[in-house]
Queue: 2 jobs
Job 1
Amino acid sequence: MSVTTPNMTYPREIAPLIEALLDGVREALGENFVGFYLRGSLALGGFNPETSDVDVLVVTEQPVSETEFGALDRLHTRIAARENEYGCHYEVSYVDRAAVKRFEPGQRHHRLGWR
C-alpha cells in the first residue's frame, strides 16, 4: 500500500518520516523553502523496505544560513529520536536553486540525516 501527497507517492511505512521531514523543513526554512523531492530508490521505484534508505532533496532559494542549519540539525535530531524504523535511515541534501541549475565541480552542499 502506498501514500500519495501532491506530486509524491511513497510506501505507507515511511509516511510518518516523510511527513515529519516535510513539515519540519518547511518550518525551519520559511520563505527560503522551494521544494521537497524524493530521490534514489523511492523516485526510481526500487524502494525495498528491508534494505533501502530514504533519500530526499530539498531545494532552497538561497544557500542554507547558519541559523537555518541549526534549526534543521535540531529537526533531524528530533526525528532520529522518534519511534520510526526509518528515523535513522535517511539522508536529506539541501541545495539552493542556483546550484540545482548549474553544477560546479567541487561545490559542497549541506546534508543531514542518519544511516
Job 2
Amino acid sequence: MDPLCTMITTIVTFQLPKPVTRDEARAIFLSTAAKYQGVRGLVRKYYMVSEDGKTAGGVYLWESKADAEAMYTNGWYAMVREKYGTEPSVSHLETPVIVDNVSNEIVSEQ
C-alpha cells in the first residue's frame, strides 16, 4: 500500500431473496473468490453474511478510488444480480488510517 494515496474502503451489501446458512454463503463466496485475486489496487476483500442469513456482501480495501471505481462496472453489477438474485448497494469511504494488528502497524496517508 502506498501511504501517500487516499485508500478507499468499499462496503457492498444486498438483501438476499431467501436466507442462506453460513455454509451455503461460504460455498457461494468461494465460487467467486478467485476472481478477486490479483485485481489491480485491491488490498483485501472480506465476504460477509448476517447471522440471520438475509443480508450478504463484502468489504474491500482499495489503494485508490480509481482502482475501486474500476471494479464496479455494469458487468460486475450483472454478475451480482445473477449470482445472488438482488441489486447490491455500494458505498465508497475514504480510509485515512488503518490499524493492522497482523503486521503490527498503523498505516496512514501523508
